[in-house]
Amino acid sequence: MPPRAKPKRPWQEVAKEAQEHRDSTLNALSPPAPKLPTELPRNVLPIAPELLHPNVIFITDLPPEQLLTFLSTGQVSAVDVTTAYLQRAAVAQGLVNCLTELLPTQALTRAKELDAYFQEHRRPIGPLHGLPISVKEHIGFQGLRCTTGYVSHYDNIAKEDAHILQILRKAGAVFHCRTTIPQTMMHLETDSNLYGVTNNPYNRNHSSGGSSGGEGALLALHGSCLGIGSDVGGSIRNPAANCGVYGIKPTAFRIPTDGWGYIMAGADTVESVLGPMSTTLSGLRLFMKTILDSQPWLTEPALVPFPCREFQLPQDRPLRIGVLWDDQIVRPHPPITRALRTVADRLQIQGVEVVDFNPYLHEEAWAIIASLYFTDGGEADGEAINSSGEPWRPLSEWIITQNTCVKKLDVGELTYWLEEREAYRKEYALHWNELGVDAVLCPVNPGVAPKHNTAKYWSYTSQWNLLDYPGVAFPVTKVDKSLDKWDREQSPLSEHDTYNRELWDPEAFDGLPVSLQLVGRRFEDEKILTILEHITEQIKLPFEQFP
């Protein structure tokens, strides 16, 4: 790692300024958000409904598609909806520390413009008229800071809105807050020296996930109903799973990424994507359709000109779903396996053909993707951390300095790993062909939301980043300590498996969300959403009530 240069001012001073700014945006709310109890319970989900006005709860508990119906017919104003979400987001911040800033002035100004437009024209301005959307902090927002989780980037100010924000704003969206991210953006945890740790609403001793953990926690608390996350190794699906909400990692080059903050040198070696997270499955489709219907490839040439498509379920044969029970490296914790078994069994009852999907060299996949994450040997990230004097967060050290795959690659070594990537993608395509499945049902993580700083196994999500396959995470059930027990006869599959097994704690995990993932092949984003919608209706997912 590069030597530490003397910073311009102490990192603690910068962090204090960042947090004071965030607090000032919360204090700008009128009326002010209700005060929280001085002592918070482990599970903070019930608190907002107890504190906020019933009208605020009614609005913020509506699914996004129903809220849009109310907005587009004038049954509720954009100002009322925005005010409600600002209130609930502020409460969420106090409960789990999920915001970098609230945007009351910008959001209410925009909401008033939308209400004036509706009054004059008696119709909505676009498909998202008046819908509040939360935004992950590293997505460029004109005139606002874009830190990418580093103290040294605190003074980076975006000169214009990211392309995706331009599209959503034109569709009528209202951006009401920005959400927390981790140092380096490369954690399945959300913690930084600028803003601290974001906790899981179901259990504050556990992780909300990362790197879109601010989004996941905020959505679980209904401080937002639709938000923007990003994913290069699991950063949408992991927090969605941890927090019991929905999230899709799209195929690369479908959703615009122009205008975000991203430090990783050689980032094109592993395509990072933006995608939606939502309180509902239909929220994901709403987001994807709105973006793709705008034809973003006309102004962002890197995008594939692939419009939103309708997928028809097979009519001449049963739907065929492969189940990846484990990757032969790490066995999932008991509640994950129980969820897989329950879903598979109920699908079979509904006439779906369910087959085992055996993993194909998943350990090799990690070696490839981990070698391509930091092709400069982590120098850029190390410099970004060290230049401010801020300490390395535990999972930053783990992924960069303790990861044996992180090496500075010369041209020949880079070429080798890129060739390995393409060879593996071809081999996996043939493997999928042999099994002939429409989609794969698999874990999102090797367990449910873990305790802080323990999420060190990415391969149930990063596997699909390497292949550039779309995957959607969705809630299924909750941990039940009376049902979820290890099979003591099983011996560990690997050192990783031993570590994962030691993390299992039925008392601590009891009541946490249990989520799964549905994966399709490249550019089958609409297909997996359609299949999941069908499955959800057929077997009545999720099996338990989620907030």
UniProtKB/TrEMBL annotation:
What's the protein here called?
Answer: amidase
Q: Which family does it belong to?
A: Belongs to the amidase family.
Q: Pinpoint the Amidase domain residues.
A: 80-529
Binding residues annotated for substrate, in chain numbering: 185, 211, 232-235
- What reaction(s) does this enzyme catalyze? a monocarboxylic acid amide + H2O = a monocarboxylate + NH4(+)
The UniProt regions of compositional bias labelled Basic and acidic residues, in chain numbering, are 10-24
**Region entry Disordered: which residue ranges?**
1-37
Q: Which domain of life is it from?
A: Eukaryota
Q: Which UniProt keywords apply?
A: Hydrolase
Under Gene Ontology molecular function, one entry of this record is: amidase activity
Where, by residue number, does the polypeptide cross the bilayer?
A: none
Xref: Pfam families: Amidase
The record's EC number reads 3.5.1.4
Q: Which residues form a coiled coil?
A: none
Please give the organism. Paraphaeosphaeria sporulosa
The active site lies at 136, 211, 235
InterPro entries per the record? Amidase_CS, Amidase_dom, AS_sf
